[in-house]
């Protein structure tokens, strides 16, 4: 425009028009130049202002965007605990989804969160996700929800494969937390339908679960189903069966299982024999238990502390305490160190045979080697010594009892006072209590 004005100027300079016309033209040119300069200055000022303000505008926009994203990621919808991040179109990685469930504060909202997640295009379930979901539902005690999840997994067209660890966890929850042992069994036998075959680890867990809950009639049925699952029976499995049969009192069947070891290509171990000895001792068949002990040694199986404790307890229940003490020394000679349970079994044997003074002396030996007698041991010893009016011995046992952190009850104090005051006053014990 400036060039255009510059080109016009010579024309008006050399024009022969009247002075008034020239004056008018000059005014127009001046206005035009002024307007043009003003426009240029205004544009320059505007550009400078925009360049100065642009970083602030961008920073404000970025800050607003970050604030909005942060709120969306950490906030919750008004009517649920489900993070609103699931409403965004951003692609969520498996780790991000996993973290959503791991950090979920309210486990009761697990299923609603899963429903919201499953409606997304990027929904890709896997074993890690389902493990967290199952654990959250167990925490909420929503065991019906776990069953729904298991059915959902079965119906899904999976691009992944679940491992035995996943099912082992579900079985443990059903058995130990929910008390739904039948569902634990069903899950074990349903594993092949999920394209996962169990190992003897899961199989033995279910067997032991049944034995611990005293469902002995079901143990055999599950045991017979091992071939359907392709399970190879091992020594642990047979030991569980022996434990179950001894628990229900069928010792003959338990010994038949002992004969099954070589047929299954297994060898019995110390736990096998200890379980059988415990079953025999509980029924007073102590001689048979010692015969089994000798058989075990002949087969080259070394007894452990549990084995000796079982036999010492069996001798004590029959009043053969001296033999129990001898067996304690024999135990040391065989290089097997006794534990607190060993000494406690000998002490109970002495108390059961009413050898209270010997029990007090044996207590002294226990205290010297750092073994603490039980509360019941102190109580029974004090009662026995009081009945025999052995005041000094009662005093020693009482002091030991308090030093080991036990507090005598009112009945014990009455008996101790009665023993202490016996023969030392003409007043009766009841009169002293009244005063």
Helix content: over 70%
How many helices does DSSP assign?
22
Detail the poorly predicted runs.
1-81, 425-435
Series of H and E elements: HHHHHHHHHHHHHHHHHHHHHH
Approximate strand percentage: under 5%
The gross shape turns out to be: flat
Biggest sheet overview: none
Return the average pLDDT rounded to an integer.
Answer: 81
How does the helix and strand content classify structurally? Answer: mainly alpha
Kindly report how far apart the N and C termini lie: 126 Å
Would you count the extended β strands for me? 0
The whole-angstrom Rg is: 44 Å
Protein name: Pentacotripeptide-repeat region of PRORP domain-containing protein
Keywords: Repeat
Pfam families: PPR, PPR_1, PPR_2
PPR repeats: 234-268, 269-303, 304-338, 374-408
Could you name the key traits of this structure?
flat, 22 helices, disordered C terminus, mainly alpha, 435 residues
């Amino acid at each position: 425009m400036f060039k255009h004005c510059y080109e016009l100027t010579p024309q008006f300079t050399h024009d022969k028009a009247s002075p008034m016309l020239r004056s008018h033209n000059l005014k127009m040119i001046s206005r035009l130049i002024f307007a043009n300069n003003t426009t240029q200055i205004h544009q320059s000022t505007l550009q400078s202002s925009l360049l100065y303000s642009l970083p602030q505008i961008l920073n404000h926009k970025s800050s607003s965007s970050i604030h909005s994203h942060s709120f969306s990621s950490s906030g919750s919808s008004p009517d649920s605990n489900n993070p609103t991040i699931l409403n965004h179109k951003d692609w969520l990685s498996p780790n991000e989804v996993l973290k959503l469930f791991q950090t979920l504060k309210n486990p009761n909202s697990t299923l609603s969160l899963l429903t919201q997640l499953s409606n997304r295009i990027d929904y890709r379930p896997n074993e890690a996700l389902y493990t967290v979901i199952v654990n959250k539902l167990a925490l909420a005690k929503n065991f019906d929800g776990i069953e729904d999840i298991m059915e959902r997994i079965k119906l899904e067209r999976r691009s992944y494969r679940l491992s035995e660890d996943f099912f082992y966890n579900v079985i443990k929850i059903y058995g130990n937390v929910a008390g739904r042992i039948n569902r634990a069994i069903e899950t074990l036998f349903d594993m092949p339908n999920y394209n996962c075959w169990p190992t003897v680890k899961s199989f033995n867990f279910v067997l032991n679960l049944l034995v611990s809950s005293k469902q002995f009639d079901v143990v055999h049925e599950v045991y017979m189903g091992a071939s359907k699952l392709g399970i190879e029976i091992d020594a642990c499995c047979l030991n569980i069966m022996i434990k179950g049969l001894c628990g229900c009192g069928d010792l003959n069947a338990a010994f038949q299982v002992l004969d099954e070891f070589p047929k299954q290509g297994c060898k019995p171990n110390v736990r096998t024999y200890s379980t059988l000895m415990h079953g025999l001792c509980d029924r007073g068949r102590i001689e048979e238990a010692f015969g089994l002990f000798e058989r075990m040694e002949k087969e080259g199986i070394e007894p452990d502390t549990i084995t000796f404790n079982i036999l010492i307890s069996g001798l004590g229940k029959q009043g053969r305490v001296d033999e129990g003490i001898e067996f304690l020394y024999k135990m040391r000679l065989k290089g097997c160190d006794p534990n607190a349970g060993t000494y406690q079994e000998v002490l109970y044997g002495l108390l059961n045979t009413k050898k209270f003074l010997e029990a007090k002396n044996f207590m002294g030996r226990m205290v010297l080697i750092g073994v603490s007698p039980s509360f019941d041991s102190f109580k029974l010893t004090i009662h026995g010594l009081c009945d025999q009016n052995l005041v000094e011995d009662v005093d020693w046992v009482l002091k030991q009892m308090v030093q080991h952190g036990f507090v005598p009850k009112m009945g014990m104090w009455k008996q101790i006072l009665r023993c202490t005051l016996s023969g030392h006053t003409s007043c009766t014990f009841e009169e002293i209590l009244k005063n």
